[in-house]
From TrEMBL:
Keyword Cytoplasm belongs to the record: no
InterPro entries linked to this entry: SLAC/SLAH (IPR030183), SLAC1/Mae1/Ssu1/TehA (IPR004695), Voltage-dep_anion_channel_sf (IPR038665)
Annotated transmembrane regions: 79-102, 114-134, 146-168, 180-200, 212-231, 243-266, 272-290, 302-321, 327-349
Entry's localization field: Cell membrane; Endomembrane system
GO biological process: intracellular monoatomic ion homeostasis
Protein name (Swiss-Prot/TrEMBL): S-type anion channel SLAH1
One Gene Ontology cellular component: plasma membrane
Keyword Ion transport among UniProt keywords: yes
Entry membrane topology: Multi-pass membrane protein
Example of a GO MF term: voltage-gated monoatomic anion channel activity
Subunit structure comment from the entry: Homotrimer.
Family: Belongs to the SLAC1 S-type anion channel family.
Protein's job: Slow, weak voltage-dependent S-type anion efflux channel involved in maintenance of anion homeostasis.
């Protein structure tokens, strides 16, 4: 029988230990990198799905007040589509929320890094905005129900805390001046506040809705002017993030819906904001070269195309109900079709590139 010398035995044992350690390390990496590299920007997916469910709910309500051919079939189609979208958005939002909660618990240092990032901090509004949109789209609760109002408070309080922190930094902290950090994603805070105002108006809380709308529209004007000046913050935006330019469309569109819920009708201020969003949308689609580099490789930032157009389509529904003209109805159908097609394309692209969503990355710039 061959003899194993002591030094050979030590070498064999060391190799076994190293091999076991490497396997354990690989398992730990595979188990943890999803939590460690996941960031709030992924909630753009849930915002898109929840807003699309809300769009189809609004279409169903519009169908009730209109007299289309074969209205019963249309109602069944709209209701079925809405339910599918609502349950899909609920599932996706639950998964994303659990993943982000795990990230907060086990990788809190990365949450701090995300908060200090000039793009990443703006996406911290997206989880709460997603839940507010999903709450508005539900048929399970009436807006006047106390549970609905309690959930609204639960989702809005974190938005207000972020508002106080971030807006305060813009004019008190030298390294965080708005002129330095401003970029199109800065409008995410505006969108979150507008969504909160819209929901509050539907609940009948006019004072709360007016408060949130005032906070949103004031800072929207400041951000809009700052971004138009193209200061250093916007120039730092990576090419792959250029789809977020469509947030220019989202903010005034949601603003028109929010003010409509406060005033009780789609009046002149609502139309002014709606026309502004249409103009900005036209300005963006006339410049496809701006997004050429961003479209070379799939990125979760592509989801920034979806929900701004859905907000615009929802605003067009209220505009069509107010204008009662063939042109307004045609515009509503065109925008709804575009929004739906883009969502379907993004769902297909995401399914085909799901590995890209969970690959390790150290950047929130996606």
């Amino acid at each position: 029988m061959a003899e194993i010398w002591p030094d050979q035995s030590v070498m064999v044992n060391a190799n076994v230990v190293i091999d076991v350690d490497n396997k354990n390390s690989e398992k730990n990496v595979n188990r943890s990198f999803i939590f460690s590299k996941f960031h709030a920007g992924y909630f753009r997916i849930s915002i898109s799905l929840a807003s699309q469910a809300l769009l189809w709910k609004a279409l169903n309500e519009h169908n009730h007040s209109s007299h289309y051919y074969n209205q019963h079939f249309m109602e069944k189609l709209l209701s079925t589509t809405f339910l599918l979208l609502w349950y899909l958005s609920l599932l996706v939002l639950l998964v994303l929320s659990i993943l982000y909660l795990m990230r907060c618990i086990f990788y809190f240092r990365m949450i701090k890094d995300e908060f200090l990032h000039f793009v990443g901090v703006n996406y911290m509004f997206t989880p709460w905005t997603s839940w507010l949109l999903l709450l508005q789209s539900t048929r399970l609760l009436n807006p006047e129900h106390f549970i609905y109002k309690g959930l609204w408070l639960f989702f809005v309080i974190p938005l207000l805390v972020l508002d106080v922190k971030i807006y305060g930094q813009w004019f008190t902290t030298e390294k965080r001046f708005l002129s330095v950090v401003a970029n199109p994603t800065s409008q995410m805070s505006i969108i979150g506040n507008m969504v909160a105002a819209w929901a509050a108006g539907k609940m009948g809380w006019k004072e709360s809705a007016t408060c949130m709308f005032t906070l949103a529209i004031t800072h929207y004007l400041v951000i809009f002017v700052t971004l138009y000046q193209r200061l250093s913050g916007g120039n730092q935006l990576p090419a792959r993030l250029r789809p977020v330019y469509f947030l220019f469309v989202a903010a005034p569109s949601m603003g028109s819906l929010a003010w409509s819920s406060i005033s009780g009708s789609f009046d002149t201020p609502c139309k002014m904001l709606f026309y502004l969003s249409l103009f900005l949308f036209a300005s963006l689609i006339c410049r496809p070269g701006l997004f050429k580099k961003a479209m070379k490789k799939f990125n979760v930032a592509w989801w920034a195309y979806s929900f701004p157009l859905t907000f615009l389509a929802m605003a067009s529904i209220e505009y069509a109900q107010e204008a009662k003209s063939t042109a307004a109805t045609g515009l509503m159908l065109i925008l709804t079709l575009i929004s739906t097609v883009i969502l379907l394309c993004l769902l297909l692209s995401t399914a085909l590139n799901i590995h890209n969503l969970v690959r390790p990355t150290n950047s929130v710039d996606n």
